[in-house]
Structure formats: C-alpha cells, structure tokens
Amino acid sequence: MQTKEADKKAVVCFSGGQDSTTALAMALKSYEAVYTIGFDYGQRHAAELECRSRILADIEPLLGTRALGGDLLIDLSQYGRIAECALTRSEAIIFDDEKGLPNTFVPGRNLLFVTYAAALAYRVGAHDIILGVSEQDYSGYPDCREESLEPLALSLSRGMEYPIRVVAPFMHCSKAHEWELARETGGDALVDFIVRQTHTCYTGEHSRLHTWGYGCGECPACRLRAKGYEEYLQKLAKEP
Ligand code: ZN
C-alpha cells in the first residue's frame, strides 16, 4: 500500500548522460525528495561519471528546486569483468548481426541498476524508480524495453514485499522530444545546461563541443544525440 509520504520520493538512476539528466530535472520538479544512484562498471566513458558530480552540484540552483536527498555511486567494477563489451574495453563499436545488437550492449545492465535502485528505494521509503531509457530511437537493447522492466518491477515488489514502480518518462519518446521535455521543464537554460554538462559519447571524448554537446561526433551515441538535437531545432524553428 502506498503512503502519501512515499509518493513524494523517487530514486533516479543517474549516469550523467543526456537521458538521465533530463529525467533527473523532471523528477526534481515533480517530487519533494529525489535520491540519485550511479554505477561505475569500468565503462570507457568515465567522462560521464565526472559530469555527474558537477551536474548534481549545479542543477538545483538552475531549476530553483531543493529536492536532492543524496547520491550514491556504486562500484560495479567486478560486473564490468563479466559484462565485457565495447563500452568496457577498447575496441571498435560494431553491430553484431547474429545477436541483432551492437557490441556496446552490456548484458543485463539496466536490470542490475534497477535492482540496486530498488534496494535504495526501500531504504529511503520511495516507490518510484526513474529510468531514462527508451524503446524508440535507440540501439534495441532488450533491457530498455517495457516488457523486461515491468516484470522486473513486479518481481522486486514481491521479493521485497514493498511496491516498486519503474517510471521511464522517455520509453516511447524520440531524442528530439526529449529535448522538448527538457525545455518544458527548465526552459532554454536547462537545454543549454544539458548540452554543456552531460556526456553521452561512447568513446569518452570530452574536449570537442558541438552544438549538441561534447563527443567524438562519430559513435552511435553521438550520432543519435546530434540527430535528435537537429530535429529539435527544426521543430523549434517552426514554432510561432
Ligand atoms: Zn561519440
């Protein structure tokens, strides 16, 4: 049974990338207490983790909220050893036709993240876990889909005898729409903040600033981010 108090709290899986930063901003505007959790699994894009602390320090003054309740960074370096892929070792990012997935797929990653977040939610008295994943527009990672996350929430709720809900605001959302949601949440200032402060590039390149943010401009994550931002600008230009 959900109490009113618990409905005011949320746990955000927060990596320091575009998706989770937008989700965090939306949560800060909607909940009274927001707890963040991040994971270090030996990812090549450690620049993302470096962005985390800066974002956590600067996002509330920007939004005018006071909801951040604390942050946890979980060391999953041992998981990185099992889940070796192009995100955790130096190799070219390619598409594996046999598996139907790019070699950036880290098996079970989001399932593990949500399980950790659920344990934190239990501890702080929250029921909602906010996850910036999308079924649309992405690389087809099966652990980003509703069909894998909903049964997981059910399993966690039963296993902890405590209601857990996975809230994925971008589940059916394009990248362009995600930029629109950022604008609705915090205006152009938040869009600019996300462009400059977040990191999405798979290769960890964080020295070149493009209109859409930092990155190599070549990897699938950069191309997706650039394309989404371009579409967002085009839509914006058509607004009266
Ligand atoms: Zn890149």
Structure described in brief:
The protein is an alpha/beta fold and 240 residues long.
Structure description:
With 240 residues, this protein is of the alpha/beta class. It contains 8 helices and 9 strands. Helix 2 links the parallel strand 1 (9-13) and strand 2. Zinc ion binds at residues 201-203, 205, 215-216, 218-219, 221-222.
Order of helices and strands: HEHEHEHEEHEHEHEEH
The percentage helix is: 40-55%
The helix tally amounts to 8
**Derived structural class:** alpha/beta
Task: Describe the protein's topology.
Blueprint: H1 4-7, E1 9-13, H2 18-30, E2 33-40, H3 46-63, E3 68-75, H4 77-82, E4 95-96, E5 101-102, H5 109-124, E6 128-130, H6 146-160, E7 165-167, H7 175-197, E8 209-210, E9 213-214, H8 220-238
Parallel strand pairs: 1-2, 1-6, 2-3, 6-7
Antiparallel strand pairs: 4-5, 8-9
The structure holds zinc ion.
What are its keywords?
five-stranded parallel sheet; single chain; Rossmann fold; alpha/beta; two-stranded antiparallel sheet; 8 helices; about 50% helix; about 240 residues; 9 strands; binds zinc ion
